[in-house]
Amino acid sequence: MRARAAGARLGLAVVVLWGAVTVGFAALQLMDGGTLDLILGTSSQATPEVRRQIIADYGLDRSVPEQYATYLWHVLHGDLGRSYQLRVPVSEAIGDQLPATLALTSCALALAVVVAVVVALLTAHRAPWLRGGFAATETVALSVPQFWFGTLLLIVFSFTLRLFPAAGGLALPAVALAVTPAGMLAQVLRKGLEDALDEPFVVTARARGLGDGAVRLRHALRHALLPAVTLTGWLIGTTLGGAVVVEQVFSRPGIGRLTLTAVTNKDMPVVMGVVLVAALVYVTCSLAVDVLYRLIDPRLRTEAAA
Amino acid sequence: MTGPLVEARGLRIGFGAERAVREVSFRIEPGECVAFVGESGSGKSVTARSLVGLAGPGADVRAERLVVGGTDVRRLPERRWRSIRGGVVGLVLQDALVSLDPLRPVGAEIAETLRRHRAAPRGRVRERTIELLATVGVPEPGLRARQRPHQLSGGLRQRALIASAIAADPALLIADEPTTALDVTVQAQILDLLAERKRAGTALLLISHDLAVVARLADRVHVMKDGAFVEEGPVREVLRAPRHPYTRTLLAAIPSERTRGSRLTVTAEPGPAAASAPGPAPGREAARKVVVEADGLVKAFGDRRAVDEVSFRLHAGETLGIVGESGSGKTTVARLVLGLVPPDGGEVRLDGAPWSALSESGRRPRRREIQLVHQDPLSSFDPRLTVRRLLNEALRDGGPSRATLLDQVRLSPALLDRRPRELSGGQRQRLAIARALAPSPRVLVCDEPVSALDVSVQAQVLDLLADLQARLGVAYLFVSHHLGVVHHLSDRVLVMRGGRVVEAGPVGRVLTRPATAYTRELVAAIPRLDGADAGEPVA
């Protein structure tokens, strides 16, 4: 029973990835000008020989279904094609940039989670002024545009106070990227904590002699984590999206910059590669969320047995 | 220790402007069992919880004297409360499914008390946890300690909850409605377990809305109403010769074989049909027309047969009770009769015509003839709709006027603009009955309609159901785990166990002279008011 459910979930993940590849391919076919012109660029004056060579290299003389099948086959083997602009394999172009982005997003998310957990633990069911003050701050935090906040951080901490470098550092971009997810997570966590603290088992725990801190940490937090984990799965995706903007603001290398350049230059193999990587991240995250959910809530694990 | 374990004098508890408890005084001696009895909202739980400093957020607790275990607990700092909680006083709440942390193994909850009060050396916590589970009668304690509340039956998890409360060997155990969520045989076992704790020397403070539950266990009882004690004394005296009218009301409200055919509420307002209590009502004996006929019903979920060859007939204007414990298949029978799930075998016929065999679209024109009232009316209403709109919706296809309907269920028209959440439990169940009656049904399926209600409110709803049947001639299929309720209301009864009917017949015969061992066991487990005299000595 459980193996079948896991199999179904993996199957679904594969379908999502295949969908991403197919949509990317379809988008390429629908671009005006055709693939050949994209490769050559508008200003290029290629000889017929060069054109023929490219057509042969990229298989552009074959039918669309044939091209699709070939593309799918290559993707399955980890070959995402070559960048038209950078003249390197797409996997290499992405591989070069991915670590920087991963470093940025994971720092931002870790920061967001830590801040949100601490804020939620400290403010759930506390004095109205404290709780209300933080709740309002969170609302502001999650509505602030990241490029604006990033620029603000640059002006204050790099240009005025000169505490951080304007380019190359990790701290400021991570903070800029963490603000939105931290705000969202803190709100969801606090709501979860307050719901849990109203449950009868909290009365029982306190009647055992447990202090407020122990009740929050040992009992309520785990309940509050359930909705937060779902949200985090989704936040990882949006944070990757946010990285596009933040990398630009802080002139950091990364997938964001790569994507932006590729889109502007209509470098479709790179765009499709990025779409595929993004889909892969999404799928991995939602699988991880499912697993985490079962770790936190044992009731889901034993449902079939009960 | 010398002197009383608990002494409260002039105890008052307020929440803002609301005065929940007004000047109550009581004592609990070491090893004795004191009971607080009253309806929800009477202040009994708040009073008990003030003994562990958990009266609730915003509670203003004042007293001339409030001593727990030798400590004056007035304005006690939180840190010192923590050694009283669990150490001197243990607390057991109603439903262990939500009163134990659902995400943690029950063993961890017990260990928590042991560690907090250093009641076992660090290396022996696990061993002691298992010992405690064994003490409270949990079989395979080693295995159970690793399981979570939802993996245990209602009785086992209530035992685990009690184990977590007594782990540090408190001198007083507060049990707040400890058996309300349980089946009758399990309730009897839990009461036995509490009696055992008392024999072991633990004082008990038992809180219940049901006098019959406390009758067996308590030495002294305090009857509470609107935040004050209206009567107090040794339990036998209070039960045998209640002095206060309210105590008499509470006693009269308990449904049982003795109350059959009479009203449970001592009310000043004689309803239009009040004269004709359940019993030989006109039309009831005359028309023995079969409205619902179930023949060899089978329903399986996976490998388990939830309902196994169940057959019965429901006649016009009669009440057929279905009793059984949780998991006996009684609710599935109700769902089969309603046509909500298709049977895997057998058939339900309505008025002699196919019913379960029809397609849903075939059933729809006749759905109005068979209506449902369930246990939790709150979740059966759209919380955003007002009473007016809920009734209008139910009356969409005709039926009596809204005013008639309200009058039938004795709901004031002043409630029309309220929403379900703003009604009391009894008012909600009346509204649910009104809604079910709106399409003038011939059959009402009642699935545990009074299980969530206090005894006194339950009595009002049961009286209402009896009146309505006498007046409208509706047949009831009455599903309940409460034998007293079924005995009070039903004409005939089916006793179910494991999906099968173990015994069936007129209620007077089946529940007073049971033919099967299982029914005898069920009947023996019913808490009785005379329990204080009969049975084993408790102290």
How would you portray this structure in words?
- The complex is a heterodimer of chains A (306) and B (539).
- Helix content of chain A is 79%, strand content 0%.
- Chain A contains 13 helices and no strands.
- The mean pLDDT of chain A is 85.
- With 539 residues, chain B is an alpha/beta fold.
- The longest helix of chain B is centred in the C-terminal third of the chain and has 18 residues, at 455-472.
- Residues 268-286 and 531-539 of chain B have low confidence and may be disordered.
- Classes of the chains: A mainly alpha (306), B alpha/beta (539).
- Chain A binds chain B through residues 125, 199-201, 203-212, 218-219, 222-223, 296-299, 302, 306, and chain B through 49, 52, 54, 57, 78-79, 82-87, 89-91, 93-95, 98-104, 109, 112-113, 116-117, 148, 150-151, 161, 164-165, 168.
Identify the notable features of this structure and list them briefly.
heterodimer; A: 306 residues; mainly alpha; B: 539 residues; Rossmann fold; 6-stranded mixed β-sheet; 21 helices; globular; disordered C terminus
Write the layout of secondary structure elements.
The complex is a heterodimer of chains A (306) and B (539).
Chain A: H1 2-30, H2 34-40, H3 48-58, H4 64-76, H5 90-123, H6 128-143, H7 146-160, H8 171-197, H9 200-207, H10 212-249, H11 255-264, H12 268-296, H13 298-301
Chain B: E1 6-15, E2 18-28, E3 33-37, H1 44-49, E4 59-62, E5 65-68, E6 71-72, H2 78-84, E7 89-92, H3 96-99, H4 106-116, H5 125-135, H6 141-145, H7 154-166, E8 172-176, H8 184-199, E9 203-208, H9 211-215, E10 220-225, E11 228-234, H10 235-240, H11 245-252, E12 290-301, E13 304-315, E14 319-323, H12 330-338, E15 345-350, E16 353-354, H13 360-363, E17 370-374, H14 377-380, H15 387-394, H16 402-408, H17 425-437, E18 443-447, H18 455-472, E19 475-480, H19 483-489, E20 492-497, E21 500-506, H20 507-512, H21 517-525
Parallel strand pairs in B: 3-9, 3-10, 7-8, 8-9, 14-19, 14-20, 17-18, 18-19
Antiparallel strand pairs in B: 1-2, 1-4, 1-5, 5-6, 10-11, 12-13, 12-15, 15-16, 20-21
Helix pairs in contact in B: 4-5, 4-7, 5-7, 7-8, 8-21, 15-17, 17-18
